[in-house]
Amino acid sequence: MVTGVISLIVHLFLAFRIRNLNRAPIWTYVACAVAIVSLFPFAIAIVTTWRINTGGKFLTDVGELRWMAIAGDVSTSALDVFIATTLTYQLYHGRTSLKSTQKAITTITVFVISSGAVTALINTATLISYLAATNKLVFQLFNACSSKAYVNTLMATLNLRETVLHQINPSNGPGNTNFQSIVFRHTNMNSTETDETIPVPSKNHDIPLV
């Protein structure tokens, strides 16, 4: 049940990130689809917990819950792979000609792929161990690791922002909220160029941060 709650929170958070990376209507639909699908393994976790508590037996002793365990692991793994693929696609098409921005996008992309692969592999290992030894508790070892992997994904995603901001602008230290200036040139009535400086927060850049 704990793993189901944690995975739901992380999947909803990542769906929110998908929506923020690109506000085109298609990605809004994709984010909504991810949010809806993420409710499926959560519902399975609730039903499984309720059935075990009311039946007084463990998951390995309730044969009718076998398909629920399989469906939960398969759907969660597929969702992790889909989210990682979607974010990677969005980041790839969000590249710019700025080297600092390209480096930041590469950093985020590597993180997205690795975190998605880790959670998907753990869920796959949980499924395989459950099918290989249904009457054993080996699968609980991977199930326990799954919740920790999701928490690490969420925390690392939030902590990654400072690293990416520093790559885009090395003068930005942790917690630095100083303003930078962007200079725009325009021509006045006398055809003389003047500079107009507009202060912009240092944490606003040309790419959304995951």
UniProtKB/TrEMBL annotation:
Start and end residues of each DUF6534 domain: 77-162
UniProt keyword terms in alphabetical order: Membrane, Transmembrane, Transmembrane helix
Listed InterPro entries: DUF6534 (IPR045339)
Pfam assignment, any one: DUF6534
Taxonomy, superkingdom: Eukaryota
Protein name (record): DUF6534 domain-containing protein
Keyword Kinase included in the entry's annotation: no
Residues passing through the membrane, by range: 26-47, 67-92, 104-133
Keyword set includes Transferase: no
